[in-house]
């Protein structure tokens, strides 16, 4: 049973990282946002992000190239977006 909950937790972190990518957040911004708003330890976010990078090398290379500094979100926008993501994520998980 514990393996299922660990896999589910990692899947949730992956889903939240994917949402961060949609909002053009850097790895550091994503780690900070998930730590602050979802109580996910930065080391967990970093580990899952690194695994996603390994599995999707081409995507992350293109993502890094396309990301520009002026696309950063304000803290208020980030907070609202993360809260919405968590709410949506918990609704999706309850359907599974």
TrEMBL record:
Family matches, as Pfam families: A_thal_3526 (PF09713)
Organism of derivation: Linum trigynum
Name the record gives this protein: Angiotensin-converting enzyme 2
InterPro entries found in the cross-reference section: CHP01589_pln
């Amino acid at each position: 049973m514990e393996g299922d909950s660990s896999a589910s937790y990692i899947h949730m972190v992956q889903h939240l990282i994917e949402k961060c990518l949609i909002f053009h957040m850097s790895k550091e911004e994503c780690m900070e946002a998930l730590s602050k708003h979802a109580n996910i330890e930065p080391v967990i976010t970093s580990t899952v992000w690194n695994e996603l990078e390994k599995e999707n090398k081409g995507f992350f290379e293109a993502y890094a190239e396309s990301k520009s500094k002026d696309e950063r979100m304000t803290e208020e926008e980030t907070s609202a977006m993360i809260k919405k993501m968590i709410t949506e994520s918990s609704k999706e998980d309850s359907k599974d």
